Automatic annotation (TrEMBL):
This is GNAT family N-acetyltransferase. Transmembrane segments: none annotated. Residues 99-241 form the N-acetyltransferase domain. Keywords: Transferase.
Length: 241
C-alpha cells in the first residue's frame, strides 16, 4: 500500500499470515483492533518519527493506552474528547425520511461549501481553510459530491439547512460525518428526518450498516440519532493537537 495514496503509513501486527492489529499513521493516528501491547509497540514506532499527526482517534481503551506512551514526549492535546458514543443502524430508520434531502451535485458546491466550512470549524475549533487549506478542503468536498456521498436539504433561497456526508465505506458499513443544521433552523427536528433520509439512501445504495460517532455532551444530536434508530455499540476517544 503506497503511503502517497493512503495519506500516511499503515502498520500491522501479524500472527503467521493473519493481520491481527493495525495502526494508520498520517494526519490521524488510528489504532485498529489493538491490545495494549499492540498499542505500546505502535506508539514507540510513532515516537521514532517526526510528528505530523493532528489527531489521535480510535476505541477509547486503545487511545488511552497510546496516550499513556506518547504523553510527555508529544505536546498536550488542545482538546480531548474521551468518551464519544459510536452509534450504528443496520435496519430501516424508525421515522420517515425527509423527502427534501437529496444527494448533492457539482452545481450545489457554491451553496454547500460554506456550510461544510462552518460545520468543520464549529466541530473542530479550527477552520479547514487555515494555513492554506482551502484548496485541499474544497477538493475533498468535490470528491464527496462526485462519489454520491454528500447529502443536503436546501431552503427556498438555496441555503443549506441540513447536510451530512459519508466519510468512508466498505461493502459492509459506511461512516457518516459532517452532520449539520443551519443555526437559524436548529430545534425544528430537521436532523431527524434528514438523518433518516441519509440512512435510507446509504443502506440502499452504499452499505447495509450506517455508523457515526458523536460528542458525549451533544445531548440534542444523540436524541435525534436515537429517534432515527441508531444504537450505541462502543465508545471512542479523540485527541486533537
Amino acid at each position: 500500500m503506497d503511503p502517497r495514496w493512503l495519506g500516511g503509513e499503515i502498520w500491522g501486527r501479524f500472527e503467521g499470515d493473519e493481520l491481527v492489529a493495525g495502526c494508520h499513521m498520517g494526519a490521524n493516528l488510528v489504532p485498529v483492533q489493538c491490545t495494549r501491547e499492540d498499542v505500546a509497540t505502535f506508539a514507540e514506532r510513532a515516537l521514532a518519527r517526526v510528528r505530523s499527526t493532528a489527531t489521535i482517534v480510535g476505541p477509547h481503551d486503545a487511545v488511552e493506552a497510546l496516550w499513556e506512551t506518547v504523553s510527555g514526549r508529544w505536546s498536550e492535546p488542545r482538546e480531548a474528547r474521551w468518551r464519544q458514543p459510536h452509534l450504528q443502524i443496520d435496519g430501516d430508520p424508525l421515522v420517515a425520511p425527509d423527502p427534501e434531502v437529496r444527494p448533492t451535485t457539482p452545481a450545489d458546491l457554491i451553496a454547500l461549501y460554506p456550510a461544510c466550512v462552518d460545520m468543520y470549524t464549529e466541530e473542530v475549533g479550527v477552520s479547514p481553510e487555515t494555513s492554506g487549506g482551502k484548496d485541499l478542503y474544497q477538493a475533498r468536498v468535490r470528491q464527496l459530491i462526485s462519489r454520491g456521498w454528500s447529502f443536503a436539504r436546501f431552503d427556498e433561497s438555496g441555503r443549506v439547512i441540513f447536510k451530512a456526508e459519508v466519510a468512508c465505506s466498505t461493502p459492509y458499513a459506511a461512516q457518516v460525518q459532517g452532520v449539520y443544521v443551519h443555526p437559524d433552523r436548529r430545534g425544528e427536528g430537521l436532523s431527524v428526518g434528514g438523518m433518516a433520509a441519509v440512512v435510507a439512501h446509504v443502506r440502499e445504495h452504499i452499505a447495509p450498516t450506517v455508523s457515526l460517532y458523536v460528542n458525549e455532551w451533544n445531548v440534542a444530536a444523540r436524541a435525534a440519532y436515537s429517534r432515527v434508530g441508531f444504537t450505541e455499540t462502543a465508545r471512542l476517544s479523540t485527541l486533537m493537537f
